[in-house]
Amino acid sequence: MALSLDDVSEAPAPPHAAIGRRVQAALIFARGGGTTVLSRQRVPYPFHITRAFRMHPENPDLATLYLQSASGGLYAADHLTLDIAARPGARAHVTTQAGTVVHRGGPEPTRQETRLTISDGAFLALNPDPLILFPGAHLAVSTEITAEPGARAIVTESVACHDPLGEGRPFDRLDLGLTIRTPEGRPLVRERGRIDGAAFAGAASPMGPHRAYGTMVVLGAPDDARLAGLRLRQAGDAAGCLTGVSPLPNGAGLGLRLLAPDGGTLSAGMEAVFRIVFEALSGCAPGRRRK
């Protein structure tokens, strides 16, 4: 979901018994008429999507779709779920137009769940802009990927901090979870992480001096020199990030982690490595559209 930081001010602290929104959206991409079509969609408020753009003249079957927010970000105790399915032969790129603000939370976390189902022969790239954690934000993010053999995917996730008053106040807590499984339900990768905002921003932070963090999961990567870890590390590091690349467990794919001093540097690093991987998996460079 997209939102420019210039468009918001800090939200007031929520009441103790905040009741957030429970909303589920769903997108299904399928092959039809020689191209990729959005065959089904359920996009309730606050989700909003654009039409599918054709931004690759050399690959007109590759659809690009922008996911947007109509509500100004994520609020206390929200529980928003997004399901995306890519059917056999479908090729889709889903992104956002700006970062998503996560406002001050409460005891109950703001939850964002993403569930992806990718069929054999399908290609799905999901690379939203960073989640921007405001002071007091309490966010739990979970991503579940079910991929058939022969599926190709790029899935990114990134977070950065912002205090509108410029006082360096931290978020409250951040939980991150990733699961990759086979269609039969066998888990290939399970990862969980949690950090408090004070520890994230403190002198002894496990992030060191970095204040923004991003990950990328690559499934179905070809055995190609363009995806050599050295080149990806060089691309991320050249943008000002600290970049690590390693194989995922059980031969699931490739995993990348990027640390950066701020959200802008992180976005530049994520874009640099995404461009390399996208071209290797799709056969063309990602389309450039003004955000």
Folded structure, characterized:
The chain has 291 residues and is mainly beta. The chain is 12% helix and 42% strand. Strands 3, 4, 6, 7, 9, 10, 12, 15, 16 and 17 form a 10-stranded mixed sheet that branches. The chain has a 7-stranded mixed sheet with strand order 2-1-5-8-11-13-14. Strand 16 and strand 17 form a beta hairpin. The protein is globular.
**How much helicity do the residues have?**
10-25%
Distance between the termini: 13 Å
Structural class: mainly beta
How many DSSP E strands?
A: 17
How many distinct helices? 3
Q: What's the oligomerization state?
A: single chain
Biggest sheet statistics: 10 strands, mixed
Q: Which descriptor suits the 3D outline?
A: globular
Give the helices and strands as they follow along the chain: EEEEEEEEEEEEEEHEHEEH
Q: pLDDT below 50 for ≥5 consecutive residues: which ranges?
A: 1-17
Average residue-wise pLDDT: 89
Q: Tell me the radius of gyration.
A: 18 Å
> Which strand-content bin applies to the residues?
35-45%
